[in-house]
């Protein structure tokens, strides 16, 4: 498979950032045909989404980023080549306990506000809760990244009202139980069918700009994760939507290598997954290690 025809990374202009991160609208839109508004990057490569967890218990960087440090880290990721910053205030690692929405709002909104004052880059809110999404968009977020794919009560109505770019992820079960012996007949077909149904529901609610995420590590075995990674282009074809892949620092790397028990020790495997995601047609890649990923993608393209 040939890589994209042009360099995988270039400076994104303000108009292109705004095309990806549409401003919210206060009125509820009528149902409309499913369509995708974010354009491809000018250089043909994937968008890079930098992970910013402001939680005490996320699997990789829980407790590391407080408000001031979090903003500085986000700006550093943008300088390193990230196109989007994904802010999360509740851990969704296997076995994670739920967080009260008031606590989650208190964690994410100061960071989003401070970051929005310093950059026009797209800011994503990683949340399952409609109230948190509303607060985050009011603070300056322009993307809703939802691991529940708008299945929470009131989520579809809220997404339609906001009409920001929405990322719908597949998860079998919920974080506390999702890794309890996950099983599928055909994992790609089942995930694609689920995401298509959720995308149609989101479109009917008024959401115009939709991405899908197969949810690597969310109710999947290592074999499921690898099948979905290899099938990114088929998933895009089956849903008609751009695909985000998030495999950064996940335990599949340890299972493959047999050594990296600490997430910090999985950078090499994360970069390898990112290169394969780009090769397999992902439109966006969610990563913790931005500079390493961007550098690897540049070298991969140059050496192709």
How would you explain this protein's 3D organization?
With 304 residues, this protein is α/β, with parallel strands linked by helices. The chain has one domain (45-302): TIM Barrel, CATH 3.20.20.20. The protein is 41% helix and 12% strand. It has eleven helices and eight strands. An eight-stranded parallel beta sheet has the order 6-5-4-3-2-1-8-7. Helix 2 (67-80) packs across helix 3 (101-116) and helix 6 (187-205) packs across helix 8 (232-239). The longest helix is centred in the middle third of the chain and has 19 residues, at 187-205. The N and C termini lie close together (10 Å). The relative contact order is 0.15. The model is unreliable at 1-37 (pLDDT under 50).
SSE layout:
Layout: H1 14-20, E1 47-53, H2 67-80, E2 84-88, H3 101-116, E3 123-126, H4 130-139, E4 143-146, H5 155-162, E5 165-169, H6 187-205, E6 210-213, H7 222-230, H8 232-239, E7 244-245, H9 251-257, H10 267-279, E8 284-287, H11 290-302
Parallel strand pairs: 1-2, 1-8, 2-3, 3-4, 4-5, 5-6, 7-8
What value does the Rg take, in angstroms? 18 Å
Q: pLDDT below 50 for ≥5 consecutive residues: which ranges?
A: 1-37
Shape: globular
- Per DSSP E runs of 2 or more residues, the count of β-strands stands at 8
End-to-end distance, in Å? 10 Å
Summed up, the helix count is 11
Q: What does the largest sheet look like?
A: 8 strands, parallel
Strand order of the main beta sheet, please? 6-5-4-3-2-1-8-7
């Amino acid at each position: 498979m040939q890589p994209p025809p042009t360099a995988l990374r270039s400076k994104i202009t303000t108009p292109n950032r705004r095309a990806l991160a549409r401003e919210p609208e206060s009125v509820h839109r009528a149902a409309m045909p499913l369509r995708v508004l974010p354009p491809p990057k000018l250089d043909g490569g994937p968008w890079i989404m930098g992970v910013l967890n402001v939680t005490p218990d996320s699997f990789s960087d829980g407790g590391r980023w407080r408000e001031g440090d979090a903003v500085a880290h986000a700006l550093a990721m943008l300088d390193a080549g990230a196109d989007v910053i994904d802010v999360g205030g509740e851990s969704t690692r296997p076995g994670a306990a739920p967080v009260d929405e008031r606590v989650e709002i208190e964690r994410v909104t100061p960071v989003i506000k401070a970051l929005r004052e310093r950059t026009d880059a797209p800011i994503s809110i990683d949340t399952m809760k409609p109230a948190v999404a509303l607060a985050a968009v009011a603070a300056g977020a322009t993307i809703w990244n939802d691991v529940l794919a708008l299945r929470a009560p009131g989520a579809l109505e809220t997404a339609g009202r906001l009409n920001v770019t929405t990322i719908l992820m597949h998860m079998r079960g919920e974080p506390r139980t999702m890794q309890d012996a996950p099983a599928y007949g055909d994992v790609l077909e089942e995930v694609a069918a689920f995401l298509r149904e959720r995308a149609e529901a989101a479109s009917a609610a008024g959401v115009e700009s939709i991405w899908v995420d197969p949810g690597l590590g969310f109710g999947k075995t290592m074999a499921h994760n690898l099948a979905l990674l290899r099938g990114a282009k088929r998933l895009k074809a089956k849903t008609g939507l751009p695909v985000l892949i998030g495999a950064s620092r996940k335990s599949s790397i340890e299972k493959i290598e047999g050594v990296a028990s600490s997430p910090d020790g999985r950078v090499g495997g994360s970069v390898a997954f990112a290169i394969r995601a780009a090769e397999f047609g992902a439109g966006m890649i969610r990563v913790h290690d931005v500079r390493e990923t961007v550098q690897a993608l540049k070298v991969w393209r140059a050496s192709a």
